[in-house]
Give the backbone structure.
Amino acid sequence: MYLLILQFSDKFFYSSTACTVLSRTLMHPTHADNYENVSIIFILHWWCFSGICYTIFDLGFRFDVAWFLTETSPFMWANLGIGLAISLSVVGAAWGIYITGSSIIGGGVKAPRIKTKNLVSIIFCEAVAIYGIIMAIVISNMAENFSGTTPETIGARNYQAGYSMFGAGLTVGFSNLFCGICVGIVGSGAALADAQNGSLFVKILIVEIFGSAIGLFGVIVAILQTSKVKMGD
Amino acid sequence: MSLCPELSFNVDHGYLEGLVRGLKAGILTRSDYHNLAQCDTLEDMKLHLQSTDYGSLLTAGNEDLTVSLLDNRLKGTILTEFRCLRAHSLPPLSTFLDYITYSYMIDNVVLLITGALKHRDVEELLPRCHPLGTFDQMAAVGIARTHAELYSAILVDTPLAPFFQDAVSEANLDEMGAEIMRNKLYKAYLEAFYAFCWERGGATRDIMCPILEFEADRRSFIITVNSFGTDLSGGDRRALYPSCGRLYPEGLQLLARAEDHEQVKAVAEYYPDYKLIFSDTEDGSSRTLEDRFFEQEVHLNTLAFLDQFHLGVFYSYIKLKEQEARNIVWIAECVTQRQKSKIDNYIPIF
């Protein structure tokens, strides 16, 4: 009976985590304020409850990190890395484009001359998505078949390959996410400043160039991470 | 998302902020005012205004060019622009823009009541109401005889209902009662608006709250100065002072006890900004107290455009446009009455 409670506690733990994350990101800011306190308290209570139950009933061995890392296939890590690389990059690019785009449209009503010049900001944001897809293709080309099924037969090199690909995906994904947001916010300021005074655009463009360089740094580091990857037998 | 408004502001309000900033670029500058002040007739002014953002404002239609026509057309532009912004807006910007209209609604209600007391026809009064503050039940306001009747029969359905908590009393509506009601309504409105801006946080709070604090303090000073010589006692005055300003609480207590202009000036001495407003100028220019308050208001409103991703730009744009309308009408009056000496008493904005 205690085992049943513990089995369900795992599921509630994951679902309550998902609840908080969803409430923070999807809901309108004012609605989420009511829910996130409840979800956080709920999660903390379930963590404590699960932890105490595991300790009391001498089932601590179930919380086994080594088992998790060796039993999960390197393919899972590799594909997660590929997925994160492209999806987080696209989120960053989209975020930046809408921030800049709405300001260009608004400013372009009374100052139509800004419309063409400010597309450069949109292009900088789009470049971030291109970095993401390039890295996703590069990483996915490294995934090869291997014929092991147990941790010993799979071998250390395949595990290393899996983790490297996951890490590279995370690196390029998050750095492109923040790069896209940064370029978007600066581009919005550039559009509105350009609408007031045409000579300001080039100066703010320099700030944008620095902002887009950080996306490039993420790509470089990700290439370095996957340079030694060799999956297969 | 409230920690980082830059990330989510443009979803709902990016286009409108860009639009308002574009409209702000059309606000007349010092050189425009200089040109207007050089004019000798209203026809010259019309010519100069054609080269600004106003374009064909005065050339449309074939009515006689008078100062009142100019005034109406200027107010009409502000009205069109505000209605365009309000129609495209989403919450919380729509609530914010509604808050801006409530002050005009309060003025309209008091105008209708005082007009009804003087037995003026409602049809005659309605065109004199401020167009930004229209609400559905306007025609029926003149019928009420007491505050309670006014509230329960008419105003409970309008957006002004929450501001009536303090103002409802069983006393009959008379001239003085209408003024007191206006001030109590305005106090409740200002405090509600202040709480709304405070809750938004971030740049909206940093820009709007000083503006509203100044407005509250300005009302307190004006109420005090205007009550000298009437039978409004200090205790009654205290109930009318808005409490969201910098004078609250000590300054308001001192103001409630003040009996003449010197004592008011002494209260202002404690606050550097207000000390400057109340101090006598060296060059003896004929700026009244109202003018100096307007100057400070313009200064605070221009600060709103230095920051991005906040709601304050919309409020500041409307207020600066109104100031511009006042400036142009002042210049037009001086031109038509040939009083060129006073023509430079407008307040330049940018």
User: Anything to note?
Assistant: Chain B touches chain A at residues 1-2, 6-8, 10-11, 14-23, 25-26, 308 (CB under 8 Å). Residues 284 and 345 of chain B are 13 Å apart (CA to CA). Residues 87-193 of chain B form one domain.
